[in-house]
Amino acid sequence: MTDATGILGGSAGRSRAGVERALADFRAARPVVIHDGDDAAIVAGVEGLTAELAEALTGLALAPPRLVLPAARLRRIGIERTVPGRVALPVIDEKRVVQLALTIEARIDAPVSPVDAMDEAALELARLALTVPAVIVVPVDPASAGIADLLAVTAASIRRYRADEAKALSIVGRAPVPLEGAPETEFVVFRGGEGLRDQVAIIVGRPDLTQTVPVRLHSACLTGDLFGSLKCDCGDQLRGTVDWMAKNGGGILLYLDQEGRGNGIANKMRAYRLQSLGWDTYDADEVLGFDLDQRRFDFAAEMLKMLGVTKVEVMTNNPVKIAALTAAGLEVAAERRVIGRATDHNIRYLASKRERAGHAIDADALLASLTAGN
User: Catalytic residue numbers?
Assistant: First the structure.
């Protein structure tokens, strides 16, 4: 008799599927229930919160609800933290929640308590859903009829979701795609790594996979890669890398669905709005509750291993990417810098990456690029 467990996905597959359903509901501003042992809580995002929903959640509470905020947001509203914290909500006041979670000039108005495992899982759900990382957690009776129609997921499934996704990578399609200046190019599409998103390996030319392979991990940037935004150098780095690989024996560019340093396109636009008001790129993210960088690169290393790559020359300015590939077991034999054009619009952004995130960007080269552009 055939064992159907593997065919139907097994416990790991069901666990991931449960989180994916919860993410879909959460992104659609529908509350979900998280179970952690004998405890249960309704979790709702700040995005889409209405007065009616706030009232309904308050009515179901078994204990006082709380607003869970990440450390970055707490620092912005007046309390130094390196870990998330929670603020008690005697009632869920929509205006107060939005004030504490999103308003630029907000200041903390109540004591901040340590979070528990349920709070951490709820915050991770928001991060995975690419929504604003601020959540309302409402303790409820697990047997309450009021939660029967809400989608439920376990805290343990949320906690292990990213690791499970990295392990579940699979190649779902590949085909030659000739590019301008690089006619011998193949696109290899992977499923997994970052939730319901696909990742792409772009093999330029015919790199010798038994030797050191030039590799770039490139996070998707809709504004820069596709529309030529002047606010960043992403498009230049993308096209410059492909051009260099085509002229130097080939290489592999991983195009990763990690818009906005892993924050998602909506949060990226929120941050851009703040930048238009004068905020630095990293300060703008902190206002929204994000630390310097939300991206992970463990699954990128797995993609390379699945392609047969073991030794790489990393084309990057970001030391985090180099460290991640090394930690994942790849041999980093060399590094190569990838510098785009500096413009009046992106010079502050590039300087911030160098000064605040440790990117290897030469200041003199930046100024020379800017002068040449003018």
Answer: 293, 295
